[in-house]
């Protein structure tokens, strides 16, 4: 799989409600607006932005990833509002095993409306059809029931608890593993 070719130009993925696209410098205010919400901290491994400069630094890191690797996070744009409401990404594919880990975050103002499920399903389809992946994984905190439900509605299956799997905010955390395998396994 030639990732550079697949991600040049960066693919735009559309759903009825969303546009998944490369992040842009003009996304700064929207990124800061949703990711400065302290409630975001409950379920992600990073701290919410304390000021606009932290958001700018993080956005610049995303933009640098596009230049360096060709791939990076998709911004989740709400089609009707033309507003960045989240981010969804995958790790760089493991070349031999053809698997990635997916992660996402959505603005609290848009929780419970099906947008995370719509974005996850779209990225799963892209991963299997265009990236030729065999497996897509995601991990969530055991208490994050809403995110677990998003993954289940997207076709992912619960595989179990991974004890002390990652360090989140300087603390080892147990995480629930969800995964989906390509139905056209090759």
Describe this structure in words.
By secondary structure, this protein is an alpha+beta fold. It has a single domain, classed as Gcn5-related N-acetyltransferase (GNAT) (Aminopeptidase), CATH 3.40.630. The protein is built from five helices and eight strands; from the N terminus they run αββααβββαβαββ. An eight-stranded mixed sheet has the order 1-2-3-4-5-6-8-7, sandwiched between helices. Strand 1 (13-14) and strand 2 (18-22) form a beta hairpin. Helix 2 (28-35) crosses helix 3 (52-69). The longest helix is centred in the N-terminal third of the chain and has 18 residues, at 52-69. The radius of gyration is 16 Å and the shape is globular. The mean pLDDT is 93.
Layout of helices and strands:
Elements: H1 3-6, E1 13-14, E2 18-22, H2 28-35, H3 52-69, E3 74-78, E4 83-90, E5 99-106, H4 115-129, E6 135-140, H5 145-153, E7 157-168, E8 171-181
Parallel strand pairs: 5-6
Antiparallel strand pairs: 1-2, 2-3, 3-4, 4-5, 6-8, 7-8
Helix pairs in contact: 2-3
